[in-house]
Amino acid sequence: MSDRIDSPVIEQQLAHRSVRRFLDVPVTDAQLGRIVSAAQRASTSSNLQAWTVVAIHDADRKRRISQAIGDHHYVEHAPVLLVWLADFARNAELIRSRGAEPATLGLIENTVLGSVDVGIAAQNALLAAESLGLGGLFIGGIRNDPAAVSAELELPQNVFPVVGMALGVPDPAEGTGLKPRLPLSAVLHREAYDPEAWRDGTEQYEENYREYFAGQGVESRSWARAVSGRLGTVEGMHGRHTMRESLRAQGFHSE
C-alpha cells in the first residue's frame, strides 16, 4: 500500500491562483481541444455527460457578455472565454429521437446534477490548462444576467449557463500570490460534522487573510466582512437572487 503524500498533480493543484490579466498570446485550437478532452474524462453522474462548453474568441461577443454581467476586464481581454453549460437539450433530443418524451427534466435533481457535472468537468479543464502553462479564472458573474448570456449564446431550452472561465497565458506583471485558504481543521471533519470546528480555524484564517492582502497593497481586508457582504444581504447577490426565474426561463423548473 502506498504512503505517498505528494505528486506533480497535487503540486500543480496547490500552486493554483486566479489569473485576471493575460498576455496577448492566443490559446491554440490544439490546446483548447486537449483541455476540453481532459474535462470530458471527469466523473459524470450516470454517464449522462450533462454539460457543454462554448468557447468565445470574438472580441465583440466577449465585450457584450462583460457588459451584461458587470463590466469585467478579464472577460473582455482573455484570449478565450469559456462558458460552461448545464445541458439537457442533447439528452432530451436523444430521448425524443427514440419516440418518447423526457419526463424528469423539470425536477430539481437534474438542476443539481447538471451543475455538479459542470463543476467537476470545469475544474478538470482548469487544472489541465495550468499544466500547459496557462492560467485562468472561474467567473460566477456569468449568472448575474443569465438571460443576456443565454440570448448571446443562443441557448435552447434545457441549457443553462453555470459558470464562465477566462483562459490565457498569465501576465507575470499581475503579481497575484497564493490566496490563503481556511486551515484543514475547519474543513476536514472526522466521522461526523463538527458544528464548532470553524471557530478556531476561522480566527487564524482572518489574520492570514489580512496579511495576504496587505502584502498585495490592500490594507484592512477581512474575510468575515467579505462573507457577510456576499451572503448577508440581497445586494451581495448581484442580481442572482432571481435565479429561480432565470432557471425556469431556460426550462429548469427545479420542482
Report on the architecture of this protein.
- With about 260 residues, this protein is of the alpha+beta class.
- The chain has a domain at about 10-175: NADH Oxidase, CATH 3.40.109.10.
- It is built from 11 helices and 4 strands; from the N terminus they run ααβααβααβαβαααα.
- It has helices at about 10-15, 30-40, 60-70, 75, 90-95, 110-130, 145-150, 185, 200-215, 225-230, 245-250, and strands at about 50-55, 80-85, 135-140, 160-170.
- A 4-stranded antiparallel beta sheet has the order 1-2-4-3, sandwiched between helices.
- The longest helix is centred in the middle third of the chain and has 24 residues, at about 110-130.
- It is globular, with a radius of gyration of 20 Å.
Can you identify the CATH superfamily of the domain at 8-176? NADH Oxidase
Beta-strand content: 5-15%
| Outline type | globular
CATH class of the domain at 8-176: Alpha Beta
Low-confidence segments, ≥5 residues, pLDDT <50? none
The pLDDT mean sits at 95
Give the structural class. Answer: alpha+beta
Architecture blueprint of SSEs:
Blueprint: H1 8-14, H2 29-40, E1 51-56, H3 59-69, H4 73-77, E2 80-87, H5 89-97, H6 108-131, E3 135-139, H7 146-152, E4 159-168, H8 184-187, H9 198-215, H10 223-231, H11 243-249
Helix pairs in contact: 2-6
Enzyme class: oxidoreductase
Pfam families: Nitroreductase
Domain Nitroreductase: 16-168
Any key phrases for this structure?
NADH Oxidase; single chain; 255 residues; 11% strand; alpha+beta; 4-stranded antiparallel β-sheet
